Amino acid sequence: MTRPAALGDDLFVVPVFGKTYRSTNLGQEFSFALVDDRGVLRGRLEGLHLREDSPFTGFDFTVVADPYRARAFHLNRYGLYAWSADGVLRSWMPTAEKPFKPLVHFALLECTPAGELLLAHRKQHLLLRVPVPQDLDDLAVAVEAALKDYGRERTALKKQYAPVSWLWSDSAATVNPL
Fold first, then answer.
1. Burial class of residue 146 (count of CB atoms within 10 Å of its CB; 0-12, 13-18, 19+)
2. Phi then psi for 56, rounded to 5 degrees?
3. Who contacts 105 (Cβ-Cβ below 8 Å, separation ≥6)?
4. Among the residues of 34-171, which ranges form H helices?
5. pLDDT, tens digit, 9 for 90 and up, residues 13-46
6. If both were cysteines, with which of 41, 70, 78, 129 could 85 make a disulfide (CB 3.0 to 4.6 Å apart)?
């Protein structure tokens, strides 16, 4: 079991998986369980294939939730997934498709109170905010646009700060002593 995510005051998503092995875990049992505040199992997030969508690849079971809009999100090497509070998969962006390939370089951090997904680039030390539309069917368009903007803005930042090994420094920034 890993860190749960609150879908509301009385509903949580709890990532659960079985024994892990030293070799491959691909195809092993896992579930994103919907559990109420009393610990009663209410269902699970549907639509994930044990092998083709396995979070064991990269060992990423992070699930974030937007309790204000009752949505859950998961990102692994195979795609970005979005569910409604009843566990129905509403949107899936496979990383095998060209517009979403850059997602494999990001880690899903959180869903902000404003309803934005917050992702961190694993090597470039930059954050990406993805505004989540009211209709989850439009999420793919929003993610594609955010990834395009990320590329443009990263290029501008590279010109401005000239990072070394993707470490961004700003000599003009002040540091206040404690």
1. middle
2. -65, -30
3. 121, 122, 123, 124
4. 139-161
5. 988 876 665 555 555 677 788 999 999 999 988 8
6. 70
Q: 71 is written with which tokens? A: 């949505």
Question: What is the Rg, in whole angstroms, of the alpha carbon atoms belonging to the chain?
Answer: 18
| pTM listed for this prediction | 0.85
Tokens of 5: 């995510």
User: What whole-number distance in Å separates Cα of residue 74 and Cα of residue 81?
Assistant: 5
41: tokens are 């199992």
Q: Running DSSP on this structure, what letter comes out for residue 167?
A: B
Q: CA-to-CA distance for 131 and 139, rounded, in angstroms?
A: 8
Q: Where are the beta strands (DSSP E) in the chain?
A: 5-6, 11-17, 30-36, 41-44, 63-66, 71-76, 79-84, 89-94, 106-111, 116-121, 127-131
Tens of pLDDT along 83-105?
A: 999 999 999 999 999 999 999 99
Inter-residue contact 15 to 61 (CB < 8 Å): yes
Sheet holding 5-6, edge to edge: 5-6, 11-17, 30-36, 41-44
Three-state DSSP at 98 gives: helix
